Amino acid sequence: METSSKLPVKRSYKILGIILGISILLFIAVLSTGPSSSSPSVSNSSVGNAVIVTSTQDKSNCEGITLVATDEDAFDAYTKSSIAKDQAGIAELIAAKKAFIIPNCTKANVIDQSFTARKVRISEGEFNQSSGWVAMEFAVLANQ
Fold it and tell me: Are 101 and 9 within 8 A, CB to CB?
């Protein structure tokens, strides 16, 4: 009788394992679908994509500038300064050549990415062939 009492326990572990596996697969499927088609094309920029770098997220409005950080540490410092509204901190990054400024709507290619940022290689203008990090939402797909 002991063997028959262990059988339902093993079966319930098997069922729980199957349920857990299905749950994990559903979770991964939801994450991999990405944003809906009504979302801006911003978060779809990934390595290899041609993008327009703009702080306005509007490719038809090319007024203004975008700051590009030269490395990830500089990008983190820029983000912190921006959140704190620390204009002097941002100016220090530029003076130390840890960041540079480009006009909005500058063409670039995404060459690396992190969770919140994209590393781009500028493909026109004064900083042609320079690379740096911008906020993910500043790298707008060029072909949309």
Answer: no
